[in-house]
Amino acid sequence: MPPSPPETPAKKPFMGKRGRELLVRVASAFVLIPLVLGILWLGGGWFLTLISVGVALLCIEWGLMASPNAGARLAAALTIAALAALFTGYLGHPVLSFLILLFGALCTGLYGYRLGAGWMDAAYGVLYVGFPAIVIMWLRESNNGLAWVMFAFLIAWASDSAAYVTGKLVGGPKLWRRFSPNKTWSGFAGGMIAGMMTAAALNDLTHLFKHNTSPLVVGVVVSLATMAGDLWESALKRRFGVKDAGSLIPGHGGLMDRVDGLMFAIVALGGIRLLVLLGTEI
Q: What is the rounded distance in angstroms from the CA atom of residue 88 to the CA atom of residue 82?
């Protein structure tokens, strides 16, 4: 019997699964970031429309996570409550908008209880989505609003991206294994450094803060908030038993998976903006 020919080794794919996921992730960001920044620059009704669409999509994702059996009805209640507060704030009544948000959370909680979805999850969903939406609209409509919102967006994006890349390249001890097993202390450090550098560079362009240390403090606070928001959403997904909040954005999962850190960053920067208005030096 003639000897069998040697087996030809199987060709390895040009790009592994992680490489393809990263490529899709980068391509999605390449399309979405210029679009968001362009609408942010236009402001006014354009920005209100962007935030309103974002609020509606986040409410849908929350409703489906919190109550798979009654997700559509719960999402509708969440959306109505959050948008009512957002539009009130846009019309120049920020304090009233927060009161409407609280009332909407109460009503949505009662409705969630009636649906058997859990009143606390329903009520918290309104606050979780609506509060950052009101704050970012207030920031954009305030004096130097474009610069303030740019600080929130760019610091959050830089911090999140640097944490992801540094964690992948360096690795090391896990940050919070229980809720987010992929995040590392090296990624945390990389995100903090990127946030401070971004804040300093933005301040050189906008001159929003007069003291040299101010942008560094802002970078630290907003970066911490960004990573806290990411970890908090990981804990929420674990609570609801889902891997991703949705599948809207290729390579990123749902919209909530993409803006979880940004939502906390916006609230943190809103607090800084309020301190500045009250005359507190940062």
A: 10
Residues 166 and 122 in one domain: no
* 154 in the same domain as 78: no
CB 186 within 8 A of CB 171: yes
Q: What is the value of pTM for the model shown?
A: 0.86
CA atoms within 13 A on the CB side of 58: 27
Q: Are residues 74 and 132 in the same domain?
A: yes
Whether 14 is in a domain gets the answer: no
Please name the helix (run of DSSP H) or strand (run of DSSP E) that holds residue 176, with its range, or none: strand 174-176
pLDDT in tens, 51-110: 999 999 999 999 998 888 888 999 999 999 999 999 999 999 989 999 999 999 999 999
Those residues whose C-beta lies under 8 Å from the C-beta of residue 207, and which sit 6 or more positions away, are: none
Measured CA to CA, the distance from residue 200 to residue 205 in angstroms comes to 9
The tokens of 197 are what? 């550098």
